[in-house]
Amino acid sequence: MHTxxxxxxxxxxxxxxxxxxxxxxxxxxxxxxNMNNKYKRNTFKISELEKxxxxxxADLKIQFIDKKTGEPII
Length: 74
Known about the structure:
Number of helices: 4
Radius of gyration: 13 Å
Helix content: 40-55%
Order of helices and strands: HHHH
Shape: elongated
Protein name: Helix-turn-helix transcriptional regulator
GO molecular function: DNA binding
Distance between the termini: 19 Å
Oligomer: single chain
Largest sheet: none
Number of strands: 0
InterPro entries: Cro/C1-type_HTH, Lambda_DNA-bd_dom_sf
Strand content: under 5%
Domain HTH cro/C1-type: 17-57
């Protein structure tokens, strides 16, 4: 599955009770406009993704997946 970060965050927001983008922005200490700009550009730093995960009551896990096997490298 090739989901970009923006799409993944949107899927998670829906799963977490249709949390609005504005509510997510508020919970991460950003303005809705700033969050919207990040969505448009699809530019999230790891530190911002950690805040997004925290706002959703989740942990952030990043993995490298082997393209041939589809399995995590580590």
